[in-house]
UniProtKB/TrEMBL annotation:
EC assignment: 1.1.1.169
Primary role: Catalyzes the NADPH-dependent reduction of ketopantoate into pantoic acid.
Protein name as catalogued: 2-dehydropantoate 2-reductase
Keyword field: NADP, Oxidoreductase, Pantothenate biosynthesis
NADP as UniProt keyword: yes
Family stated for the protein in its record: Belongs to the ketopantoate reductase family.
Organism: Roseateles asaccharophilus
Domain (Ketopantoate reductase N-terminal): residue spans on this chain: 4-148
GO MF annotation terms: 2-dehydropantoate 2-reductase activity
Ketopantoate reductase C-terminal domain segment(s): 181-317
């Protein structure tokens, strides 16, 4: 590959862009001054829970505040939060040659579609990142859980196939799917934990070890799964257990949950959801792309999604509250006691 452009150098962009560069592909990073300053000062360090610890010196990083004019990357990775999709897509559309492939590595099910509607001249692919990435220090990004990447595409998509090969050199798998929607819905179900985690104020592992938070998550997922069934939308299984079986496991008492969900609990002690990061620094969250998507799914069926709607309201009310919800408070607020 001659070059990859990362649009949105943050946790996902720096980690996956960094791996791509370590695989021998020149990578350009477009990001905010706060992030670029850290990268210029410290270089990029990538670590993971399996012992990865690699550095890219600052001098070897290609850093930009805007997509550079005249650049013709083989592939672009869109790594901004959902609320920034339209603006980032527009900036890409102004500089990239027509037909440049762009993979959205964002959560939610609608980002690639929104980008396509905003800038139809680029070639948009949905994508999915299953693992957690945290910025541990300026320039240091850490992967705290496992999993393989997925993207909408075929082996005949030259740039995607080349990226897949490059990532393979770094031990990272990328699965290509002609239709990514079932995978995206499967990921969205898992991401219904993002607001639970964010409102808990705890790291993911500690939060999942509290039965009250797991009951809240199971209720949100059950509401979503019932609606997905009613809408006849297939949902891919992204965890060792099928989604409905996972609901039962989430509701188990904690000692049993620890035993049955040992693999799910292979999470670094400090890992938090990306929404927890947003609440911590007062950014707009992706709640509309997660619970909001379930509420819209219900509306399309002339039904309601009261739990996901309440969760959406709780996250939106965070700036007034700014105090974590205990498990009992969260269950009460969702009407689950
Ligand atoms: N972190 C994780 O563990 C995972 C995240 N995801 C998903 O990946 C996506 C990215 O998440 P994450 O990496 O955590 O987000 P981050 O906030 O860490 O990174 C995104 C970065 O892009 C910047 N940005 C936004 N718009 C532009 C622009 N027009 N030009 C340049 N930079 C821009 C943001 O700046 P600013 O804050 O100023 O907008 C921010 O620094 C989200 O959809 C998330 O849900 C998926 C799986 C795991
Ligand atoms: C990996 C996962 C599910 C949880 O960290 C995530 O997607 C996020 O934090 O947004």
């Amino acid at each position: 590959m001659t070059g990859v452009l990362v649009m949105g150098a943050g946790s996902v962009g720096c980690f996956i862009g960094g791996l791509t560069q370590l695989a021998g592909v020149p990578v350009h990073f477009v990001g905010r001054p706060r992030v670029l300053t850290g990268l210029r000062k410290n270089g990029l360090r990538l670590t993971d829970q399996n012992g990865l610890d690699r550095r890219i010196p600052a001098l070897d990083l290609r850093l930009h505040e805007q997509p550079p004019a005249g650049l013709k990357p083989d592939l672009v990775l869109l790594c901004v939060k959902s609320g920034a999709t339209a603006e980032a897509a527009t900036a890409l559309g102004l500089t990239l040659p027509q037909g440049t492939p762009v993979v959205s590595l964002q959560n939610g099910v609608a980002n690639a579609e929104l980008a396509r509607a905003t800038v139809p001249q680029l070639h948009w692919h949905a994508g999915m990142v299953p693992f957690n990435i945290a910025e541990l220090a300026p320039g240091h990004y850490h992967r705290g859980t496992d999993g393989s990447l997925a993207a909408e595409g075929r082996a005949s998509d030259v740039a995607l196939a080349a990226w897949q090969t490059a990532l393979g050199r770094m031990g990272m798998k990328l699965h290509l799917h002609e239709d990514l929607a079932p995978v995206q819905w499967g990921k969205l179900l898992l991401n219904l934990n993002n607001p639970v985690n964010a409102l808990s104020g705890r790291p993911l592992r500690a939060q999942l070890l509290e039965r009250g938070y797991r009951r809240a998550l199971a209720a949100l997922q059950q509401e979503a799964l019932d609606l997905l069934d009613a809408a006849q939308r297939p949902v891919a299984q992204l965890t060792p257990l099928p989604p409905r079986r996972l609901l039962q496991v989430l509701r188990l008492p904690t000692p049993l949950f620890r035993l049955v969900a040992a693999r799910m609990l292979r999470i670094d002690d400090e890992a938090r959801s990306s929404m927890a990061d947003d609440l911590a620094v007062g950014r707009i969250t992706e709640i509309d792309a997660l619970c909001g998507e379930i509420v819209r799914l219900a509306q399309g069926l002339n039904r309601q999604a009261p739990l996901n709607a309440r969760m959406q309201a709780l996250v939106q009310a965070w700036p007034k509250r700014r105090r974590p919800h205990s498990p009992a408070e969260l269950l009460r607020a969702l009407g689950l006691t």
